[in-house]
Amino acid sequence: MSDLPPLSLYIHIPWCVQKCPYCDFNSHALKGEVPHEEYVRHLLADLDADLPLAANREVGTIFIGGGTPSLLSSEAMQMLMDGVRARLPLSPTAEITMEANPGTVEADRFSGYQRAGINRISIGVQSFSQQKLERLGRIHGPEEAKRAAKLAQGLGLRSFNLDLMHGLPDQSLTEALDDLRQAIELDPPHLSWYQLTIEPNTLFASRPPILPDDDALWDIFEQGHQLLTAAGYEQYETSAYAKPGYRCEHNLNYWRFGDYLGIGCGAHGKLTQTDGRIIRTIKTRHPRGFMNGNYLDRQYEVAEKEKPFEFFMNRFRLLEAAPREEFTRYTGLDEDVIRVELDEALAKGYLTETAENWQVTEKGKLFLNSLLELFLSED
Predict the structure, then answer these.
(1) Do 88 and 54 meet the contact criterion of CB atoms below 8 Å apart?
(2) Within a 13 Å sphere around the CA of 221, how many CA atoms are in the beta-carbon half?
(3) Distance CA 285, CA 270 (A)
(4) Neighbour-count burial of 337, counting CB atoms closer than 10 A to its CB (0-12 exposed, 13-18 middle, 19+ buried)
(5) Which H helix or E strand runs over 281?
(6) Do 312 and 256 meet the contact criterion of CB atoms below 8 Å apart?
(7) How far is residue 121's CA from residue 154's CA, in Å, rounded to a whole number?
(8) Domains of the chain, with CATH numbers?
(9) DSSP code per residue over 166-224
(10) Exposure on the CB side of residue 77, measured as CA atoms within 13 A
(11) What three-state secondary structure class fits 8?
(12) DSSP 291
């Protein structure tokens, strides 16, 4: 039997003031008022249905994402967090993150979120250029973004994160680095620095903007990475940087192939059972269906032959070494089943191996897709 991995909880709040043209998350533009308490009741009922899959494990991290969770009233947030604590053993040191958009950040409401137990806020800034924010369909301006960061700083939370994008339409190297400098100046303990990618089924996919070419993107990444390193940030995942001691524990649990309950519209869950089976859950995407009480869209068991790819697809996004014993502990499989693929990865210079760990090399990072393809099961 495999040991059960650490457990996290993801909670999805599906509404936004308006939909951004690059966004492929399950978010819906708000028509009328947020049904605060009604939605929370459905979230807790959804959680009740999933509890048998969690085997009464302690929850180490909670992440409330969206949409725009900061559209939820502080009373509804209190009701939600009280309901979670009544149903699940929550670690006394649990990291509890909530996403927020600068345009929906108000001091009173945030003190209420903090009383409910939120101790980390992730602020979706994306850019400090008014022109770029408009191009991205954001409803806030640069000053609101700075005000939100200062508010988060002043609350004395455990941590806060700023989300910033680069590779924006017509963005020059100077503009990208200027955005980054302004973010660093706000001194967030954590910075998520993403490259904009055009996702299918978005407004940008139907009318693609002109993005910087690969050479320009490489210059932005290389010089931005130097700026971040000089400011005391360490890159620990493809697009995540943190000051020492401030990595996002919730995301780390995802990348380390930990388990998570996913509740709310379109949320995904991954739950290892005591017999070693891995169950994935996917919730109903649309708020209407979800709030009719039809929470579960589908549930399936991960096939044995898919487990190596799923494990490494997550694990190799992290820059830290991967403990070899975790492969067997989290998948229930013997390392022998992937020996041939590992030897090929070693021979190609994608990985190094010690008695304890596997480490992705610089070459492996550059050819991450080729490395992961080695572990894809042949159908």
Answers:
(1) yes
(2) 15
(3) 17
(4) middle
(5) strand 278-283
(6) no
(7) 12
(8) 7-253 (3.20.20.70), 308-379 (1.10.10)
(9) ES-TT--HHHHHHHHHHHHHT--SEEEEEEP---TTSHHHHSPPPPP-HHHHHHHHHHH
(10) 27
(11) strand
(12) T
What are 194's strand-pairing partners?
165
Taking every pair of C-alpha atoms in the chain, what is the biggest distance, in angstroms?
59
Six-digit token string for 128: 């400090």
pLDDT tens digits for the chain (379 residues)? 347 999 999 999 999 888 888 888 888 888 888 899 999 999 999 999 999 999 999 999 999 999 999 999 999 999 999 999 999 999 999 999 999 988 777 777 888 999 999 999 999 999 999 999 999 999 899 999 999 999 999 999 999 999 999 999 999 999 999 999 999 999 999 999 999 999 998 999 899 999 999 999 999 999 999 999 999 999 999 899 999 999 999 999 999 999 999 999 999 999 999 999 999 999 999 999 999 999 999 999 999 999 999 999 999 999 999 999 999 999 999 999 999 999 999 999 999 999 999 999 999 998 999 999 999 987 6
Please name the residues in contact with 247: beta carbons below 8 A apart, sequence gap of 6 or more: 190, 236, 240
Query: β-strands 90-100, 59-66: how paired?
Result: parallel
Whole-angstrom distance, CA of residue 316 vs CA of residue 308:
12
Residues 324, 346: Cα–Cα separation, whole Å: 14
| Beta carbons of 35 and 71 less than 8 angstroms apart | no
* Residue whose pair of structure tokens reads 């009740």 in the numeric block: 48
Instruction: State how far the Cα of 110 lies from the Cα of 252, in Å rounded to an integer.
Output: 25
- Tokens representing 67 are 């949409």
